[in-house]
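TICKET #2291
ISSUE: user wants both folds in one file
ATTACHMENT 1:
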Amino acid sequence: MISKVVPNVSEALKGVDDNMTFMFGGFGLSGIPENSIAKLVTLGVTGLTCVSNNAGVDDFGLGLLLQQRQIKKMISSYVGENDEFERQMLSGELEVELIPQGTLAERCRAAQAGFPAFYTPAGYGTEVAEGKETREFNGKMYVLEKAFDADFGFIKAWKGDAAGNLIFKGTARNFNPNMCGAAKITVAEVEELVPVGELDPNQIHIPGIFVQRIFKGAQYEKRIEQRTVRPKE
């Protein structure tokens, strides 16, 4: 079986360049590809179009790329936790495409499955549908949404093996599975990397066919986006 393991994040990100479109798994700060994002910052690539449910926070996640003005366009669903994102959007420095969360997930899944487009009722009659084809099915109006066309997909998983099979843990199993195989090259960083055969086949969430490169990540912070605590009695 072909090994898809690369020794480090530098090898995993070979081929990234300016003006590319990247997908980033994660929900809030849960399950984000921390090592890949940090490396993109040091590489200094610019003009990026980024597909992600969130835009990180000011000093973590995609917020690090925003700080360095490396992102040209964000395609997201929820971006309310990042003041720098808000500032760049309102000043016109950052192009933003806000789309319904389910549509975002489905545009990823369509790319993964090889479907060029699909119809959805979400957004019909709103700004989301402006300039898009609409069609009636069984008396209900739908909007045509196109699958994403990304150069790289950056994924974070809990466990993976040398063949690229992945297991996600808890809420990190969010946008990550839909983004696997949805870009030309899928890069998976994992907390635990094991030999082929050590993962229970019944527990695998994503088969290795959807992954081109895999590496063992390091020094995960796993920050909490909003911490709420009960006052002492």
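ATTACHMENT 2:
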Amino acid sequence: MNDFALWPVLAGAAAFFVVGALWYGVIFGKAWQKAAGITDEQVQSGNMLVIFGLTFLFEMLIAMVLWHLLARTNPAPHVIMMMSVGFAIGVMIPAIGINYLYLRKTFTHFMIDAGHFLVGMAAMGGVFVLFR
């Protein structure tokens, strides 16, 4: 495994992005909007090119960090999944939770967003297992 490999990182970020598209589109779109207190008009008023572009760049950063960690440790496939999901459970979801406490977000909003990070990281881990 190389410390940085473009194709696995792109594919891992793409997997996370697809999970987000399904999560906030088909699966939990309306529930998330309600929990976030965002109207259809507010959703439509956003610059989607900037939002989606930055989302993908952030997911690329996450993928680069995880890939680098995996390349340095060369774990077994099941450990790749444990690390991916563990990063979501142990770092990302608590960070979201802390912010949501101070922002006074609802538990429903937290659970929808936390679920996205959990499933997205699992998808990224699965892609990295395939590229290993």
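RESOLUTION: both attachments delivered.
EXTRA DETAIL ON ATTACHMENT 2: The chain is about 85% helix and 0% strand.
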